[in-house]
């Protein structure tokens, strides 16, 4: 969806459409993991070490090839990232949207 940004403002109608699109097709939680790594200016390897997981495992989550597990969610929470419940909510929303997409196909 292309947004008509005027002076840094997105028209309300387009913003509502974007929000509805995200509700219906939420992104994989790995997108948020990548965003946090970027904001913290850490590499995947550095983040993985802090989280007590392997860089390969974290990369699979970031790439959307693996889910955020409850174990990883708790590790992220312990590292000062958003709560485990937040991560599990994102993963659940994504999983449900994917299941609905498969049923509709």
Structure description:
By secondary structure, the chain is mainly alpha-helical. The protein has one domain (27-104): Orthogonal Bundle (434 Repressor (Amino-terminal Domain)). The chain is built from six helices and no strands. Helix 3 crosses helix 4 and helix 5 packs antiparallel against helix 6 (84-104).
Top keywords for this entry?
434 Repressor (Amino-terminal Domain); 105 residues; 6 helices; mainly alpha
Structural class: mainly alpha
CATH topology-level fold name: 434 Repressor (Amino-terminal Domain)
Cα radius of gyration in angstroms: 16 Å
What percentage of the residues does DSSP assign to strands (E)?
Answer: under 5%
* Portion of residues within helices: 55-70%
Measured between the Cα atoms of the first and last residue, the distance is 22 Å
Overall shape: globular
Series of secondary-structure elements, N-terminal to C-terminal: HHHHHH
Name of the top-level CATH class = Mainly Alpha
Domain count = 1
* Overall pLDDT metric: 90
């Amino acid at each position: 969806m292309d947004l008509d940004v005027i002076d840094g403002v997105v028209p309300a109608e387009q913003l509502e459409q974007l929000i509805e699109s995200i509700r219906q097709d939420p992104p994989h939680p790995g997108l948020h993991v990548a965003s946090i790594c970027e904001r913290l200016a850490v590499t995947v390897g550095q983040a993985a070490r802090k989280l007590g997981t392997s860089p390969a495992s974290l990369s699979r989550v970031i790439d959307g090839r693996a889910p955020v597990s409850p174990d990883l969610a708790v590790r992220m929470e312990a590292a000062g990232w958003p709560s485990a419940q937040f991560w599990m909510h994102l993963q659940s929303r994504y999983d449900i949207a994917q299941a609905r997409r498969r049923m509709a196909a």
